[in-house]
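pls design
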């Protein structure tokens, strides 16, 4: 079994960390493995962010969790993603990942107030911060000693 991170003691990998071009994947893997091991802490596997990846590829959280539970390495998980669900070209993966990493909730009227409140807690400027900026700052704040 591939070692999982203890997310009660450290954060998962950044959503910017790309595996085979996929943003979010490394973070999703860390949260999924920790969920299986019971060390997920305040994080959530199959959260709305993970669901964005699953929907993009046309796979389900249950399928991915089963794969993670098998002890698959990062490389095997990437290979599985590339061979399951909706086929995607490397260009489509890159474009999707760039969009995900650049997403600014402040630009969405339905999410603006929530995001502004969350950014204020971390001294981020909501109008210029991406969701990934927020998640990374929140990870740092969560594990300051």
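designed seq:
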């Amino acid at each position: 079994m591939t070692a999982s991170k203890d997310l009660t003691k450290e954060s998962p990998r950044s959503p910017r960390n790309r595996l085979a071009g996929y943003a979010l994947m490394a973070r999703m893997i860390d949260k999924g493995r920790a969920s299986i091991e019971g060390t997920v802490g305040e994080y959530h596997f199959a959260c709305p962010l993970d669901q964005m990846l699953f929907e993009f590829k046309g796979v389900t959280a249950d399928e991915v969790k089963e794969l993670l539970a098998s002890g698959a390495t990062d490389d095997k998980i990437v290979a599985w993603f590339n061979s399951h669900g909706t086929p995607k070209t490397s260009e489509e993966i890159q474009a999707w990942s760039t969009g995900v990493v650049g997403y600014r909730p402040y630009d969405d009227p339905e999410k603006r107030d929530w995001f502004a409140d969350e950014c204020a807690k971390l001294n981020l400027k909501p109008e210029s911060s991406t969701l990934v900026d927020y998640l990374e700052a929140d990870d740092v704040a969560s594990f300051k000693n």
